[in-house]
Structures are given as structure tokens and as C-alpha cells.
Specification:
mainly alpha; Rossmann fold; 6 domains; 4-stranded parallel beta sheet; two-stranded antiparallel ribbon
């Protein structure tokens, strides 16, 4: 009963305790009838004695009677107290007086006879009283028995009720827990929705002259599930503003709902960085293939709208391969049937390979003169006098009615300059710009920017405003509040400078309080207004410190340390590329590049920084060798094994000239991994040689990594005995050295081998152990691999329902991490499950998907296995 109350909430907890007390009272009550029965029996004996008193001498019976009364006065005192009447009192008094007459009884028979007569007479009265008492007791006994039976019945029903209450409580607790979990999930989803809203740039306040374009685009979005829209045009023409008006349009919100996303890729150094920005906007965790993760996520949304802004950063690159990669990215996004894709970019011709629903051949045109006039007057805050109307129209015509130029000049008009004064300044600047050449439309924006900067310079604190603007120009993802605060010591009034820039519309403040610039303004400032030396040094130190604070290895600290670097990754890359182009080589610069590149290796593998740095290192083999090696390591992670091999061979030759045998072995280990899919024997030789060198240098961890790589080779050859030896020996080293990730990887591979050997219980134990470690380290890819293997194990055990669940988990994790190799193995194992279930068409489809992915990433061995399975199923 006591255990029943464990964990029960009030008032349920009190019920069993009350019943317990009640039951104990009943148990005590059940003893009363037996005691009463004994009393009645002894009273009967007393009566028999009293009726025999006339026939026998009084003295023997007197002692027996005295003994009886004393005994029952002691044992039945509670009953005596309930019956304190004259009869009982008289009996007690006479009994106590017997001692006074005892001597006289022996001497005088007459007195004895009188005493006996009196005693008998009193006893008759007493017996009558006792009989009445017995009758009452018997009635009480009967009533008590009935009450006991009732109480017993109540106790039994209460016990059943308590069990029911407890069961109901458990059920209620489970339901409450389920509801709580769902509420938490909905809360997270709501937070994500709120986050998406917060990350959307503000809706433009002043927007005129684009109603036709807005209506055409909105109509396309509302009437088709996968519109492809390219908003092209020169800088400052209003491409971004048009896209934002569309994304906030009530008709679009009604169709798409909250699944509206905006990502600017201006600060992206390559497609990988752009994909990382997209994945972050979608609220996805970091992964090695964020584009695949983003696409997989977008495919799950019934209707979504994605705007990719400032795409010219990636499209108009001198690197033809990078340009092709950008086009492939857009083609993959355009392949999502439920996604409306909008891009904005400079130029007039949209990217190839996509059938665009809307892409005006001449690009976006300038706004009309009335629209430009309305914009100016709204921003300036007053209608112009008649004498200024001609000057205003001339000014607006001169700036080609470019929305950004109109906006900048209108801000100056709001601060006091008349259209005539602005026109005069414009004409002076225009002459200088014509002499320097350039596109008239682009120069219109540039002239407007320069006029704004000249105005800024003449204002109080204007010099600091221009210096702050130059800093912002180097940070395409915006000047974040944490960096802004660190710059405070290097300005007299940095907040006043910020206010001036916002007033002149040269920067804007995001919902997260970041300072951001429009692309035309940023590029103009970068070109014409470099940072002051002291501010450049301050920014250098801030970002070098951020780089140094990031993670270097995938361990339990990775997630925490990533928070330092992730928000600034785009700014770090942009600023370091700038320093590579202008700064003298230094160990500090090398270390910062290395730190950011290592973070990228574990999240979005990118070779951008290291490849740019390598171009300056021909005369510096000490830096060039590790740079080439790490470029190759990243390329290997990206699946570019051929390019990685070229760079590894070059790095190994440099290390040989530097007489660095250890790093030569590192290159050999990486080459072994490059060759594993094409030439396993050559890979084995490279790994064995590297392992021997590491042992020679006493580096147990590196030797264990080689053993792990060798185990994978033997596993692919189905040489499970050798694979098991290598995995086991590597795991022992990893455990001894405290490398939890390496040990978990070995355990997972050992579990996979046990499946192949048919040792299912051992396989399950190994995989569950590995899964627990991966979960503790938050290694999603490892968790996914374990889920695939557990799914395969359940298929072998004919537990298809469990297999389905494990494989679904694996797909979700691989999607989050963007692991294409993992997704291929997921489809391979799902194909095996469908084959086992007799669903041959589904099995064929999954083997085909796996074969396609394996072929794309260069895994010809597993691609061949897929083709063999497809051929077998079709026979």
C-alpha cells in the first residue's frame, strides 16, 4: 500500500494512507467479538456457581467468586467503565466488604446464612443486570459484525479504486508528458518561424513606380507552385527592394505562409559559403553539405518562397568552375517543384540552365519621373516650391531616376539642401566621373554616393562617420553589435557616427542591430575610401581573436566553440581575403587563415582561403607545404579525390625537401584514403608505410587512425577477420589516449562486421555503445551511420518495422548533415529492406538512387554493387 503512493500527486497520495489507517481500525474491531464471547462464557460459569450455592458450603465458592471478580475487574476494566450503574457499583461494594465479614462467617452459622441469603438475592439482581448487558453486547456484536463486513467491502473497493487511480495517474502523466513534448516541439517550430521573420530585412518604407512588376511576380507566385523569377539590373536600380515588397505582399503571405526565406550571398566567397548561409536561414544545423541539407528540407515544405539576393558575387567571377558550380546550385534549387525561387543580380542575362518564368530581357528599368519625384518628396518630408520643381526634375533626370541615387539625394534634401544646391553639386561631380569613364547609369549611383559622403564629411563627427563606413564596407554580413562595442575605444563617438550614417541612408540597422550596407555603396566605399590604419589594425586584432577562438577538432567542445565563429564566418572570409591581397606574409596571418579553414573543414568544407594564400607562397615552402596538404585534405572530404591526390603529391615533395619525414607520412596516409576507392592495394601500401612512420615517431593516435583506415579497406574486401583486428587495435589506442570519437568510430565499424558475420546480439551491443558515444559528442554523422547499421541488423533479424524506423532516422540525420555518401548507403539499405519485404520495384528505385550518388562521388565499388543488385532484380 505504501509503495502505491510513490510518485502520486496530492490528493491521490492521501487516499491510500487513509484507507490503511481505516483497515487497522477494522482489524482491531474484529478482535472485540472474540473477547465478548469469552466474557459471556465466563459469566455463564458464574451463574452456574451461584445456583449451586444453596447445596454447597459458601466458603469454597466464595474464594472462586472473589477470584472471578478480581480477574474480570482487571481484564475487562474497559467494559466495566462503560457500565457504571448501581448494579455494578453494588456488586463491587459487597465484594470489597467480604473481607470485613470473613472471620464472623466461620464463627456464626446464622450470620453466614444471612450473608448467603443476601448475596444470593443480590446475585439474582446482578445476573439480571448481566443478562441485560449480555443482550446489549450481543446486539452490539451483531451490529459490529455487519459494520465490519461493510468496512471490509469498502476497503476492498477502495483498494481497487486506488489501483485505478494510480493507473489513471500513470496514464495521465504519460499523456501530459506527450503533450508537453509536443508543446515544446511546437514552441521550437514557432521560435523558428519567429526567427525567420526576424531575419527578413525590413520592408522598404518608400517604394513607388513598380506596381506592374510587383503584380506580375505576385500573380506568378500565387498561380504556380514553382515559379522561377530573375530580377536583373544594374546596381542601385531597386532589385532588392522589389523582392522585399513581394515577400511582404499580403497575397504572397496568404499562399506561402511563414515559409518565406531571404538570403543575401554578397559576403559568400564560394557556393559552399552561400549554401551555409541558406542552411542557417532555414534553421538547419551545420553540415558538410549544407546545400543538400537545405534542398532536402525545402522539399518537405508544401509551399515555400526563397529569395537569393546579390547573386552577382558568385555569378560574375573569373573562375569558370566556380561560375558553373553556382549555376548547378541554382539548378538544384529550381528542381524543387514546390519552391518559388527569386534571384537578384546585376547584369541583364539570367543564369543558364533554368527556364525562367519572369526575366525581362533588358533587366529592371529605372522608375518613372513622377515616381522618382514622389520618392524624393516623401523622403525629404516636404513638397518642393514651384521655383524648385524644375531643378528637382532636372536632378532626377540626371541621376537616371535610379532609386538608390534618388534616395541618397532625398536624404540630403531632408537635412536642408535644396534641389538647386544638390543639382549644382551633382554637375560638378558628374564632370569628374565622365572624365574617368564608366557606365552612365552606374556612375549616377556612384556620384550620389560621393555627394552623400561629401555632405557627411562636413557634418559634426562626419570624419568618424566616414571611417566607420569604411569598416562596414569590409564586413558584407554586417557589423555585429559585439564587434561594434569592441571598436568603441578607437572612436571618440562611435554611436554618433552610426547615427549619421543611418540618417544619410548609407547604412541600415537590421532587427539584430547589425549595421549593413547596400551592395553599390559597399563596393564604392571599398574602391575609393580605405580604412584608416589604426582602425584596420583594430579590426585585424578583433577578427584574428575570433578566428583563434574557434574549434580545431570535432570533440565535445566543438558546438560551444563554433558559436564564436559561425556568425562571423562570412565576414572573416571576406576580411582575410582582403588581407591576403594587401598584407605582408606573417605567421599571424597564416594562423588566422588556418583556424578559419579548420572550422570550415568540419562544417562547410572550403578551400577558398588556403588556395588564395597558396598563390602567394611560391617562395615560402614552409607555409606552402602545409597549405597544399590541408587543401587536399579538404578536397578529399569534398569527394574530389583526383584533385586531392595532385596536391598531396606536391605537398609530399615539399616536405621531402624540408626533410620532414613525419609530414611526408601524413601525406601518405591521406593519399591512402584517396586511393581506397580506385586502387585498394596501393592504398594499403601507403597506409602501412605511414603507420610504421607514426610508430617510429611515437604518435599512437596517428598510427591508430591508419589502422582504422586499413580496417575499412579490409572490410570492403570482405576480409572481416583482418578488419576486426585493425578496428580492435585502433579502438584500444583511442580509448587509452582519450580519443572518444575515434573509439566510437571503431566500435561502429565492429558492429557492422558482426552483422556481416551473423553475430546479431554482439552487433547490437557494439552499435548501441557507439550510438551512445556519438550522441554524447553530438556527432550527427556518426549517429546516422549507427542508425543505418541498426536498420540493416533489423532487416537481417526480420524485424522490418524496427528497420524502417532506424532507416528513417538515418535519412533525417544524413539530410541534416548533407552527407551524400551516407544518403547513398541509406538508399542501399532501404533497397535491401524493400527486397526482403518483396517490394521489388521500390527496391530497384532505391538501388538506382544509391548507384547514382555513389557514381557522382567516385565510389565505383559500391556503385557496381548497386548495378549488380538492379540487374538481379530485373532478371
Amino acid at each position: 500500500m505504501a509503495n502505491m503512493t510513490d510518485g502520486a500527486p496530492w490528493p491521490w497520495k492521501a487516499i491510500p494512507q487513509t484507507v490503511l489507517q481505516f483497515a487497522k481500525l477494522v482489524e482491531r474491531s474484529l478482535d472485540i467479538p472474540d473477547k465478548i464471547h469469552d466474557l459471556i462464557r465466563e459469566i455463564s460459569q458464574l451463574i452456574a456457581t451461584l445456583f449451586n450455592v444453596h447445596k454447597e458450603e459458601a466458603s469454597p465458592h466464595q474464594s472462586e467468586l472473589t477470584s472471578f471478580v478480581e480477574r474480570h475487574a482487571t481484564h475487562h476494566h474497559p467494559i466495566a467503565r462503560r457500565r457504571e450503574d448501581a448494579s455494578w457499583q453494588g456488586f463491587s461494594t459487597n465484594r470489597s466488604n467480604q473481607h470485613d465479614y470473613s472471620g464472623r462467617i466461620g464463627e456464626d452459622a446464622e450470620i453466614r446464612g444471612n450473608l448467603q441469603t443476601r448475596f444470593v438475592a443480590h446475585t439474582a439482581y446482578t445476573v439480571e443486570s448481566i443478562s441485560e448487558c449480555v443482550t446489549r453486547i450481543q446486539s452490539t456484536v451483531n451490529t459490529t459484525r455487519a459494520e465490519v463486513q461493510f468496512v471490509s467491502h469498502v476497503v476492498q473497493e477502495t483498494a481497487v479504486g486506488v489501483d485505478t487511480i494510480r493507473a489513471t495517474t500513470d496514464t495521465t502523466h504519460a499523456v501530459v508528458t506527450e503533450i508537453r513534448d509536443k508543446v515544446e516541439m511546437l514552441s521550437r517550430e514557432k521560435q523558428l518561424i519567429i526567427s525567420n521573420w526576424a531575419q527578413l530585412p525590413a520592408r522598404p518604407t518608400f517604394f513607388y513606380g513598380r506596381d506592374d512588376s510587383v503584380n506580375i511576380i505576385v500573380e506568378l507566385i500565387c498561380t504556380s507552385t514553382g515559379a522561377r523569377i530573375a530580377i536583373m539590373g544594374s546596381g542601385g536600380i531597386g532589385k532588392t527592394s522589389l523582392s522585399l515588397i513581394v515577400i511582404y505582399d499580403e497575397r504572397v503571405v496568404g499562399v506561402v505562409g511563414d515559409s518565406r526565406y531571404f538570403v543575401s550571398v554578397e559576403g559568400a566567397s564560394d557556393v559552399g559559403a552561400a549554401a551555409q548561409l541558406l542552411a542557417a536561414q532555414l534553421g538547419l544545423p551545420e553540415s558538410s553539405d549544407p546545400l543538400s541539407a537545405a534542398i532536402s528540407y525545402l522539399e518537405t515544405i508544401p509551399r515555400a518562397l526563397l529569395i537569393v539576393d546579390n547573386l552577382e558575387t558568385l555569378l560574375f567571377t573569373k573562375n569558370a568552375a566556380a561560375q558553373k558550380e553556382t549555376e548547378r546550385m541554382l539548378q538544384r534549387l529550381a528542381g524543387i517543384p514546390t519552391l518559388t525561387l527569386i534571384i537578384t543580380s546585376r547584369g541583364a542575362v539570367p543564369p543558364n540552365g533554368i527556364r525562367w518564368s519572369y526575366a525581362p530581357s533588358a533587366g529592371l528599368e529605372a522608375i518613372s519621373l513622377p515616381a522618382a519625384r514622389e520618392t524624393f518628396e516623401e523622403i525629404a518630408g516636404r513638397p518642393e516650391l514651384a521655383s524648385e520643381c524644375n531643378a528637382l526634375d532636372t536632378l532626377l533626370t540626371n541621376v537616371d531616376r535610379m532609386p538608390l541615387a534618388v534616395t541618397l539625394l532625398a536624404q540630403l534634401g531632408r537635412l536642408g539642401d535644396s534641389p538647386s544646391e544638390l543639382l549644382q553639386q551633382w554637375q560638378k561631380k558628374k564632370t569628374a566621373f565622365i572624365r574617368s569613364g564608366g557606365d552612365d547609369r552606374e556612375s549616377s549611383v556612384d556620384i550620389s554616393i560621393q555627394i552623400s559622403l561629401d555632405f557627411l564629411k562636413g557634418m559634426q563627427n562626419g570624419t568618424e562617420g566616414q571611417q566607420l563606413l569604411s569598416i562596414c564596407a569590409h564586413l558584407p554580413d554586417g557589423l555585429r553589435p559585439s564587434v561594434f562595442d569592441k571598436l568603441d575605444d578607437h572612436f571618440d563617438d562611435i554611436r554618433g557616427a552610426r547615427s549619421l550614417l543611418v540618417k544619410l541612408a548609407l547604412v541600415s540597422r537590421s532587427p539584430e542591430n547589425e549595421l549593413k550596407m547596400l551592395s553599390p555603396v559597399r563596393h564604392f566605399v571599398l574602391k575609393h575610401h580605405p580604412m584608416a590604419m589604426n582602425h584596420a589594425a583594430a579590426l585585424r586584432k578583433i577578427y584574428f581573436d575570433i578566428a583563434a577562438s574557434g574549434p580545431r577538432d570535432m570533440d565535445e567542445n566543438f558546438s560551444r566553440l563554433s558559436q564564436n565563429v559561425a556568425p562571423e564566418y562570412g565576414n572573416l572570409t571576406s576580411f582575410l581575403l582582403h588581407l591576403i591581397s594587401i598584407e605582408e606574409l606573417s605567421q599571424e596571418l597564416f594562423d588566422a587563415i588556418d583556424a578559419v579553414s579548420e572550422y570550415a573543414y568540419w562544417t562547410v568544407p572550403s578551400t577558398t582561403l588556403r588556395e588564395a594564400f597558396c598563390q602567394r607562397l611560391d617562395a615560402h615552402p614552409v607555409w606552402l607545404a602545409p597549405c597544399l596538404k590541408d587543401v587536399a585534405r579538404t578536397q578529399l572530404r569534398q569527394g574530389e579525390s583526383a584533385l586531392a591526390s595532385v596536391n598531396l603529391n606536391a605537398a609530399r615533395k615539399l616536405y621531402a625537401t624540408l626533410d620532414n619525414k613525419f609530414q611526408e607520412a601524413v601525406c601518405g596516409q591521406l593519399l591512402g584514403n584517396c586511393l581506397r576507392m580506385q586502387d585498394s592495394e596501393a592504398a594499403e601500401r601507403e597506409l602501412l608505410a605511414a603507420k610504421d612512420t607514426f610508430i617510429e615517431f611515437g604518435d599512437e593516435i596517428s598510427a591508430a587512425e591508419c589502422a582504422l583506415d586499413l580496417g575499412v579497406i579490409y572490410e570492403f574486401r570482405d576480409d572481416y577477420a583482418q578488419a576486426k583486428v585493425h578496428f580492435t587495435s585502433a579502438r584500444d589506442v583511442f580509448k587509452r589516449c582519450g580519443d572518444r570519437l575515434g573509439a566510437a568510430q571503431c566500435t561502429q565499424r565492429l558492429g557492422a562486421i558482426q552483422i556481416a558475420l551473423g553475430n546479431f546480439s554482439e552487433a547490437d551491443a557494439e552499435l548501441q555503445s557507439a550510438l551512445a558515444e556519438f550522441e554524447a559528442l553530438a556527432v550527427l554523422n556518426g549517429m546516422a551511420q549507427c542508425a543505418v547499421d541498426l536498420g540493416n541488423l533489423r532487416v537481417r533479424q526480420n524485424d522490418y518495422d524496427s528497420a524502417e524506423k532506424h532507416l528513417a532516422t538515418a535519412r533525417e540525420l544524413f539530410t541534416q548533415t548533407g552527407d551524400r555518401d551516407g544518403l547513398a548507403f541509406y538508399h542501399w539499405n532501404l533497397g535491401k529492406l524493400r527486397h526482403a519485404q518483396g517490394r521489388l520495384q521500390d527496391a530497384t528505385e532505391n538501388f538506382s538512387i544509391a548507384e547514382e550518388i555513389f557514381t557522382a562521388i567516385g565510389n565505383q565499388s559500391d556503385a557496381t554493387k548497386c548495378r549488380d543488385m538492379i540487374a538481379m532484380l530485373r532478371d
